[in-house]
Design a protein that fits this description.
This protein is α+β, with helices and mostly antiparallel strands. The protein has two domains: about 30-235 and about 335-400, Antithrombin, Chain I, domain 2 (2-Layer Sandwich); about 240-335 and about 405-435, Alpha-1-antitrypsin, domain 1, CATH 2.30.39. The protein is built from ten helices and 15 strands. The strands form two sheets. Strands 1, 5, 6, 7, 8, 9, 13, 14 and 15 form a nine-stranded mixed sheet that branches. It has a six-stranded mixed sheet with strand order 3-2-4-12-11-10, with helices on both faces. The longest helix is centred in the N-terminal third of the chain and has 21 residues, at about 70-90. About 50% of the residues are buried.
């Protein structure tokens, strides 16, 4: 097959984040601050020699007002499946993942899947019944709707495709990722040790330095790396007074206490409870579109029991039951970094076909390929001012040889709890976590 010269280098850096946002496309300068590691030599992309014929990119003249609900529902179902599988493998450990980041990265790869590999990925991502065109357009609409949600909320989603020089890739695959996911496309010498630094510098820039590395090395069989990066920073709509933060016992899952700072506040909140749990929404920014949702098991229950009931159906039902109510809250300050290799988990969820010699990614290249790794890293810090969170998902592709007023409530989050960052307008869940031993 004659090599397609599709790579126009260093152009489209994608700033996207599945979180919240009314406000307009983020500019490249906002997404990619000056390289703090400019002194580090970088592998230089090779200019493309030819430009394939392709459809003109979509010109979004106005922000969409809605998102395909089928995609939001699919992302919610996939997110809770993924979270359950991760926490089942890593019980009694702090967990914090971005199902949105994983779903976007996998959607990019899905554009090159065919046959049973495509069907397995569709089942895992819960997108059966959605055409490829509908999926891509829905993801593009969601990105546009989520960005710039509030003057006090930063939300950025960036996508990139890093390709080995000299390998022929399908022009349609590249064009769709560029058009719908605004992926930055770069062709590099994978044998040059500086290439790893180049990719990791992009990750650091697009997570504001919160995640500095996702790639450790590239092997002779690696032909492509696809990456999604999400960055979120939001000020609470009403910040916590640091003078009210007190060091108090936080009780771990085994009942042992540790002294830890608990932030305190009282006022009017969106609140919900039932016999098993309490829930509260803490909004971000002036527009209050984004919120952190905290679910706290009752004293007679546990986080493990809550997680057994933490299904997409129950989540959707609970979200409809929050009501405005006066109350007081105490929540821990916490900060954590988390990473996980997702190939075993995604295999468990039904897409093992994508990771072996039977994988069919004929839509990516005429060369037989498979997914070699799916690495996921996150960062989160919650304090009196607000929340900062980042996520990166890297997918390696390698060649194969062959309303009534209620009484005031009290909620003291002094034991393991679940939390999520949710876009109240679309219902999209950007991050979710289980905090069993908060660190600050």
């Amino acid at each position: 097959m004659e090599r397609k010269g599709w790579l126009k280098l260093g152009t489209l850096a994608a700033s996207s984040l599945l979180v919240l946002g009314l406000g307009g496309w983020m500019r490249l300068a906002q997404m990619m601050p000056p390289d703090a590691n400019a002194a580090t030599p970088k592998a230089q992309p090779r200019p493309a020699q030819t430009q394939p014929r392709r459809e003109a990119p979509i010109q979004m003249t106005q922000r969409p007002t809605s998102v395909n609900p089928q995609l939001v529902s699919a992302n919610t179902r996939f997110g809770f499946k993924l979270f359950a599988a991760v926490t089942n493998q890593q019980s009694n450990r702090n967990v914090f993942v971005s199902p949105s980041s994983v779903a976007i990265a996998l959607a990019m790869v899905y554009n090159g899947a065919n046959g049973e590999t495509q069907a397995a990925m569709a089942r895992t991502l819960e997108i059966q019944g959605m055409s490829l065109a509908s999926l891509n357009q829905a993801n593009a609409d969601l990105k546009a709707l989520l960005e710039n949600p509030d003057p006090k909320v930063q939300l950025a989603i960036a996508n990139s495709v890093w390709a080995r020089q000299g390998v022929p890739f399908k022009a349609d695959f590249i064009q769709r990722n560029q058009q719908f996911y605004q992926a930055k496309l770069s062709e590099l010498d994978f044998g040059d040790p500086r290439t790893v630094a180049t990719i990791n510098n992009w990750v650091s820039q697009n997570t504001r330095g919160k995640i500095n590395q996702i790639i450790n090395q590239l092997t002779r069989d690696d032909v492509m790396v696809l990456i999604n990066a999400i960055y979120f920073k939001g000020d609470w709509s009403r910040q916590f007074d640091k003078q009210n933060t007190k060091t108090e016992p936080f009780y771990r899952a085994n009942g042992t206490p540790k002294n830890h700072p608990l932030m305190a506040q009282q006022g009017e909140y969106r609140y919900f409870d039932n016999p098993q749990l309490q829930g509260v929404m803490l909004p971000y920014g002036d527009r209050r579109r984004m919120s952190m949702v905290i679910l706290l098991p009752k004293q007679n229950s546990s986080l493990a029991e809550l997680q057994r009931n933490l299904t997409a159906d129950n989540w959707e039902q609970w979200m409809t039951q929050f009501r405005t109510q006066q109350g007081s809250i105490q929540i821990p300050r916490f900060k954590l970094e988390y990473d996980v290799e997702l190939v075993p988990i995604l295999s468990q969820l039904g897409m093992g076909n994508a990771f072996g010699g039977q994988a069919n990614f004929s839509g990516i290249s005429q060369i037989p390929t498979e997914i070699s790794e799916v690495k996921h890293k996150t960062f989160v810090e919650v304090n009196e001012e607000g929340t900062e969170a980042a996520a990166v998902t890297s997918i390696g592709i390698r060649a194969t040889a062959a309303m009534p007023t209620a009484a005031p409530f009290q909620m003291k989050v002094d034991r393991p709890f679940f939390c999520a960052i949710r876009d109240n307008q679309t219902g999209s869940i950007l991050f979710m976590g289980a905090i069993v031993d908060p660190k600050s």
